[in-house]
């Protein structure tokens, strides 16, 4: 991997819903292989920022660049971006009527045109990667929350994304299941998966993140290397937030 190769960039992204200004002039650069952790109070715009990254929400102004190309107003570019981004949500959002492996097989078959057999092989390989191959034929309601979230991660990985976005992936989980999900995320980061994670799990942030971003009221107030951030270099508002969640 070449050093500091930029894969994604937000340039002066702002977002308003009706008259509510939710994001103001957000700038963010994501390099290939980097893991970025995004923190901030509830309502500060973290989810909206993630949704702007994959254009689930179009920014009101500003640009999203993927692999150097402006894609905000380019529908084909936006499609390419979405295919290359995997997203994992707080509530898993698995298809309830499909087994674990069928959840994973669906997009490769439908979107990539993969054969059922190949998609099944990919599904099993990914279930091994998230440590639950024995759960392949179980339905979501037969799985624990931690297992469901790991299926959701495997499902996202099945499209071979270049970037993974996680929106509070462990905040709906019982404490004993948080670790198993964070460990899978850490392993992926270690293997070089580019990731942007909204999480308040600061142990994970210290372990896995290259940079920490702190948001408040729709603005990015801090964007610092992990060591500096936790070493006392974070600005006063970020420090105060940290002291409240640690
Ligand atoms: P966070 O993820 O940091 O808690 P969000 O991005 O979810 O913050 O929300 C930021 C603000 O935007 C909140 O005030 C929220 O109510 C508002 N908001 C988010 N999505 C919408 C929407 N689709 N329509 C209107 N307001 C929204
Ligand atoms: Mg949120």
Automatic annotation (TrEMBL):
Cellular localization per UniProt: Cell membrane
Lipid bilayer topology: Peripheral membrane protein
Transmembrane domains' residue ranges: none
Any one GO molecular-function label of the UniProt entry: ATP hydrolysis activity
Domain ABC transporter intervals: 8-242
Gene3D superfamilies recorded: P-loop containing nucleotide triphosphate hydrolases
Primary localization class, coarse: membrane
Domain of life: Bacteria
Keyword rRNA-binding: no
SMART domains noted in UniProt: AAA (SM00382)
Pfam families: ABC_tran
GO cellular component, one term: plasma membrane
Keywords per UniProt: Amino-acid transport, ATP-binding, Cell membrane, Membrane, Nucleotide-binding, Transport
Keyword Zinc-finger: no
Family: Belongs to the ABC transporter superfamily.
The protein's name: Glutamine transport ATP-binding protein GlnQ
Organism: Aquimixticola soesokkakensis
Gene of this entry: glnQ_2
């Amino acid at each position: 991997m070449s050093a500091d190769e930029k894969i994604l960039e937000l340039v002066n992204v702002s977002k308003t819903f009706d008259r509510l200004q939710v994001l103001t002039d957000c700038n963010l650069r994501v390099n290939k292989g980097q893991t970025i952790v995004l923190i901030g109070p509830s309502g500060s715009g973290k989810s909206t920022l993630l949704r702007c990254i994959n254009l689930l929400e179009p920014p009101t102004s500003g640009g999203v660049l993927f692999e150097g190309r402006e894609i905000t107003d380019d529908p084909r570019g936006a499609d390419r971006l979405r295919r290359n981004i995997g997203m994992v949500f707080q509530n898993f959002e698995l298809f309830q009527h499909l087994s674990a492996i069928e959840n994973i097989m669906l997009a490769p078959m439908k979107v990539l045109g993969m054969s059922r057999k190949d998609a099944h092989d990919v599904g099993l390989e990914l279930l091994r990667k998230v440590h639950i191959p024995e759960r392949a034929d179980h339905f979501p309601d037969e799985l624990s929350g931690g297992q469901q979230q790991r299926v959701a991660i495997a499902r996202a990985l099945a499209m071979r994304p270049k970037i993974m976005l996680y929106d509070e992936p462990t905040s709906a989980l019982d404490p004993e299941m948080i670790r198993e999900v964070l460990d899978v995320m850490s392993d992926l980061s270690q293997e070089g998966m580019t990731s942007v994670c909204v999480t308040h799990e600061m142990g994970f942030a210290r372990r896995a993140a290259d940079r920490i971003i702190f948001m408040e009221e729709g603005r990015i107030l801090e964007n610092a290397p992990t060591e500096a951030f936790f070493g006392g270099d974070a600005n006063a508002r970020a420090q105060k937030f940290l002291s409240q969640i640690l």
